[in-house]
Design goal:
With 461 residues, this protein is an alpha+beta fold. α8 packs across α11 and α11 (333-343) packs antiparallel against α12 (393-407). The protein is 28% helix and 23% strand. Strands 15-12-14-13-17-18-16 form a seven-stranded antiparallel beta sheet. The protein has helices at 6-15, 28-32, 52-64, 115-123, 139-145, 152-155, 183-189, 225-238, 278-289, 304-308, 333-343, 393-407, 428-432, 436-446; strands at residues 19-21, 45-48, 69-72, 88-91, 98-101, 106-109, 127-128, 162-168, 174-178, 198-205, 207-208, 212-221, 243-251, 266-274, 296-303, 320-328, 352-357, 379-387. It binds flavin-adenine dinucleotide.
Length: 461
């Protein structure tokens, strides 16, 4: 990498409209730090873009000076590719506009938007599209890897609802991608994880949702975990598209609806959301209460935007996080036994194992329709290792890896690229699955020098 001279940076600054941050700036540490505190990298320069023109300038500057680039949306990616050592961090997090066309039920979103930015803007019109379950996550990274959340069983993966994208390519060109224009690029963007260019605008399809939805939690004691999980596995195979139920096992936070004696103890919880008429939803969720003798529940009709933020307090920035994830078509007894075994020995109070339900509409799209190919995944399991101090790393990482290895025999093909950690390079091709070959050909066409390589990287064919 070339050494950056002050004169070079001054020349870049003369045209750049956003903020330029250097290592001796007061805000440098705050801006370079991403969600996962386990990642601690120091870029030579951070370009905080405010327009597409800024992004083009940043790409051209990095090319001229042979700099490694890292693209940051909202900085949530567990693998930490949003930040690099020494090179240029192209930070998009200031670009937050959301333009809604309520008549056409479409929204055009800039790449610095969090899920909260998006949800708030579109819910003002009673609209939404499937996004994730933690409102501080970035729309950009989530979409480029696939994207799923409470609405996915009804409306599909986030990528299934992408209508078009504006992209700055590796040579600094601006192109539009849709089914009609640059269709090959559009295919690759929908699951190719930011390998093919920098998306400056995402255009999404929206649907009427809420604004109030039936949603909440039912919490069972851990000694009922096995039975609750078995019933969860059966129930979720047959539930209607409008209903989504996830399962999480962890130590109980001190939630006011749980008895004090259960705080800090292992438990198993069902988290649910019904994207339809709440009265109808009440009837459908009634059997969940009979899965055991609940410690407590907190279910009601609340704004969709509030439910989208419900897990934010457990997922704040700044902790050390290490994840391992598998896809499943079915939750079999073997994986239930493994979950129960490892949930009983959580290495920290913040660790959890969750099963996110997808399926229904996510499985009705052809596996080769776009780069996201895991259409047989009905569940995404994530073992979420999370703790505060580096001294806990070894123990927490070992727990996550051992759980991962023991649950692997029950997993199906593919993996969710947005849940891969930095040490899973050997799983990247497996995660892209049947799309990997075509993605590497597209990489050769759109980024032959692998300029965009801080990502779940696809090498040019
Ligand atoms: C607490 C938490 C909860 C989550 N919950 C869910 C969930 O419910 N559902 C789900 O699907 N996922 C979920 N995720 C995973 C999430 O989808 C990924 O972490 C995603 O990468 C986050 O996007 P970001 O923009 O914040 O990431 P960043 O770290 O900013 O970016 C990730 C990568 O995406 C690429 N990228 C980002 N922006 C652009 C762009 N504009 N153009 C090209 N490439 C770009 C870059 O390669 C970058 O390294 C969750 C993550 C966290 C930490």
């Amino acid at each position: 990498m070339a050494i950056l001279q002050k004169a070079n940076i001054d020349e870049f600054k003369a045209h750049f409209q956003g903020n330029m941050i250097l290592p001796d700036d007061t805000h440098y540490d705050e801006v370079r730090q991403i969600w996962n505190a386990m990642i601690d990298r120091r870029p030579a320069l951070i370009a905080r873009c405010t327009s597409t023109e800024d992004i083009v300038l940043a790409v051209q500057f990095a090319r001229r000076h042979d700099l490694v680039v890292a693209i940051r949306g909202s900085g949530h990616n567990i693998a930490g590719n949003a930040v690099c050592d020494d090179g240029l961090m192209i930070d998009l997090s200031l670009m937050k506009s959301v333009k809604v066309d309520p008549e056409a039920r479409r929204a055009t979103v800039e790449p610095g938007c969090t899920l909260a930015d998006f949800d708030m803007a579109v819910q003002a019109h009673g609209l939404a599209t499937p996004l994730g379950i933690n409102s501080t996550t970035g729309v950009a990274g989530l979409t480029l890897g696939g994207g799923f959340g409470w609405l996915s069983r009804k409306y599909g993966m986030t990528v299934d609802n992408l209508i078009s994208a504006d992209v700055v390519t590796a040579d600094g060109e601006q192109v539009h991608a849709s089914e009609e224009e640059n269709a090959d690029l559009f295919w690759g963007l929908r699951g190719g994880g930011g390998n093919l260019g920098i998306v400056t605008h995402f255009e999404f399809q929206l649907y009427p949702v809420g604004p109030n939805v039936l949603s909440g939690l039912i919490v069972f004691p851990f000694d009922q975990a096995k039975s609750v999980m078995k019933q969860f596995a059966q129930f979720t195979e047959k539930m209607p598209d409008e209903l989504n139920v996830w399962l999480v096992t962890r130590k109980a936070p001190p939630l006011p609806f749980l008895p004090e004696h259960s705080h800090g103890k292992e438990m198993v919880a069902l988290a649910l959301c019904y994207a339809g008429n709440p009265a109808q939803g009440e009837k459908l969720i009634a059997p969940l209460r009979g899965f055991g003798t609940a410690l407590g529940e907190h279910i009601g009709v609340q704004p969709y935007t509030a439910w989208q933020q419900a897990f934010d307090p457990l997922l704040t920035k700044g902790a050390r996080n290490y994840w391992k994830s598998h896809n499943f078509t079915r939750i079999e007894d073997g994986v239930i036994d493994t979950i129960v075994k490892y949930a009983a020995i959580l290495p920290s109070p913040q660790c959890e194992i969750f099963i996110g339900s997808i399926g229904a509409q996510t499985g009705r799209v052809a596996p080769d329709a776009m780069a996201y190919a895991s259409r047989d995944a009905n569940y995404v399991l994530n073992v979420h290792g999370r703790w505060e101090s580096p001294a806990e790393d070894d123990c927490g990482i070992a727990w996550a890896r051992e759980f991962f290895a023991e649950s692997q025999p029950f997993a199906s093909g593919g993996a969710y690229i947005n849940f891969l950690t930095q040490d899973e390079i050997d799983r990247i091709a497996f995660a892209y699955g049947p799309a990997h070959k075509r993605l590497s050909e597209l990489k050769k066409k759109y980024d032959p020098t692998n300029f965009f390589r801080m990502n779940q990287n696809i090498k040019p064919a």
